[in-house]
Amino acid sequence: MTDTIFGKIVSGEIPAEFLYEDEHCVAINDINPQAPVHVLVIPKRAIARLVDAQADDQALLGHLMLAAGKVASQLGVDDAFRLIVNNGAGAGQTVFHLHLHILAGRGFAEGQMAGFK
Ligand code: 5GP
Questions:
Q1: Model pTM score
Q2: Contact of 104 with 29, CB cutoff 8 Å
Q3: What is the predicted pLDDT for the residue at 106?
Q4: Are 106 and 80 in contact (CB under 8 A)?
């Protein structure tokens, strides 16, 4: 698979501040935040899209969810955050290295999510 910007970030080829890191994933601030808190949880092992995940990715996918909860707690937004995965260009995916968006710090009522992400 062609490496993406996130592959280069997790490998350290492109420097980025890791808000969180463990053996399987990192978390970074989104470069173009859509909310006061907009963090990306990125697995170190690249899977292009959620739909490309296989049965043996089950533990990694669960790990990413748990890591997202830890990051939200670390950032003090564990009472109110939204977790998003964009799957495919038609859904707005622009980086084809699976990642979770953590969004917090603004209202998420009906109608406020137009265009999102
Ligand atoms: P997607 O649209 O694929 O679900 O999300 C990709 C996200 O990555 C976008 O929200 C975009 O702003 C963010 N992004 C793209 N390039 C970079 C980068 O080089 N650094 C960081 N921190 N975020 C990036």
A1: 0.94
A2: no
A3: 82
A4: no
